[in-house]
Design brief:
Distance between the termini: 37 Å
Shape: elongated
Number of helices: 4
Radius of gyration: 19 Å
Number of strands: 0
Number of domains: 1
Oligomer: single chain
Strand content: under 5%
Length: 64
């Protein structure tokens, strides 16, 4: 097999699939929405303010 095909194969294997990226985006989105639902005491326990939680939850779906 020519060297450039082997190299292209390696690059392809290291590049996440679109489906994998979408699954990750959905997981991150769910976590952000969950974060926004936490009460102030829990947010304080993890070192976040209500504003920071709101800001994180408002981030774009694909911003991960």
């Amino acid at each position: 097999m020519p060297k450039h095909q082997t190299h292209a194969g390696r690059v392809y294997r290291q590049t996440p699939s679109i489906a994998k990226m979408l699954r990750q985006a959905f997981r991150v989105r769910r976590q952000r929405l969950d974060l926004a639902q936490l009460d102030d005491r829990t947010l304080d326990d993890i070192g976040l303010t209500r504003g920071q939680a709101r800001e994180e939850a408002a981030r774009s779906f694909l911003d991960f």
